[in-house]
Amino acid sequence: MKKDVIKPNFFIVGAAKTGTTSLWMYLKQHPGVFMPESIVDKEPSYYCDSYGHTDYDKYLQLFKSAGCCKAVGEASNAYLTSPESANWIRKEVPDAKIIIVLRNPVDRAYSLYRWMVNHGYERVYPFERALEIENERKYDVSFYQHNPQYYYNYLYFESGLYYEQLERYFNAFPAEQIKVILLDDLNNKSVETVQDIYHFLECEPSFVPTIKVYNKAEMCPASVTLHFKLRTFERRFYNKAIGKMAHYLFEMNMKIYKQNWSKLSFSTGELLLKKYQSELEAIESLISRDLTEWKKSLFVSISD
Predict the structure, then answer these.
(1) Contact 222, 259 (CB under 8 A)
(2) Deepest of 39, 117, 203, 243, by most Cβ within 10 A of its Cβ?
(3) Alpha carbon distance 224, 297 (integer Å)
(4) Who contacts 124 (Cβ-Cβ below 8 Å, separation ≥6)?
(5) What 3-state DSSP class applies to 205?
(6) 134-141, long-range: CB within 8 Å, 24+ apart, which pairs?
(7) Taking 80 as the threshold, does the pLDDT of residue 16 lie above it?
(8) pTM above 0.70, yes or no
(9) CATH assignment of 10-217+263-295, among 3.40.50.300, 3.40.980.10, 3.30.160.270, 3.30.420.10
(10) What are phi and psi of 179, to 5 degrees?
C-alpha cells in the first residue's frame, strides 16, 4: 500500500531579518512540530516563481520524516515579498496556517544590508548609496534576471513596506489562519510568544523551548568590493579549483580582514523613519497592534 504523502500545513513567510531563523529553531524543538532539519532546507521557496524548489515531488521529500507530527511547516522569507506566493499557497493549501514576523523597518533595512554585504551579495557601499540606487535596481530587468533569489533583498527600503505584503495574505486567507508577531515579542517575551504560536498550530502550548539567539550579525569585511568579487567567483566556478580557492579567500576576508559595522547614522535613520510613518499607521490598523515605539522620531540604532 502506498504511503500517504505528507504536505506542509503551516508556513513562516517572513520577513527577512526578523528573527525567523530563531523562530524556526524554537518551533522544531516541539515534539508535535516538524520542519526541515537542515538550515540548507529551511527556505525551500517552492511557492516563488523565480527560484527555489521547482520539482513538487522533491519539495515534498523535505517533509517525508514528519511522521505523526500535527504541525508540518517550512520557513521561506521570500513568500512575504513575492507577489505570487500568498495566492499560490492558498490555492494548494487552503487550510494553511500563516506566520508572519515583523521588525521595525528602519532597523530591518540596515540589518538586511549588512547581511547582504557579509555574504558577498552586495557590492555597493555604504548603505546610503545602496538606498540611492534602489529604484534603479528595482526597474532594471537585467538586474532582476541576474539576481532572482535576492532581488527583493536589494530593495532595502521597499521590502520594509509591509502593508501591501500583509494585505496579500489577509486577502487570501481568513484572519484566524494568520498569526502576526513582532520581533520585539520574540526578543522580550520569547517563551510566551513561542508558546502562543504552538497554540496557534494546535500543538501542546505548555512545551518550553530552549531560547538562544540564532543567526547573529557578523563583522564587516574590510573590502566590500573584494568580498563581492570572491563570492561571484565562488558561485561561477563552484566545482572547480578556482571556485574552491575563491571560497577559501572569501572566508579569510571575513575572518582576518574584518572591521566593526558602524551604527546606522542618525540622519539616515530619521529619513527612513519619516518615509515609513504613514505605512506604520496603516499596519497598526491592519494587525491591531500599537507600533508607537517604531514611530518615535528619536531614532536609536539597535544591533541584530
Answers:
(1) yes
(2) 117
(3) 31
(4) 130, 133, 224
(5) coil
(6) 134/158
(7) yes
(8) yes
(9) 3.40.50.300
(10) -120, 115
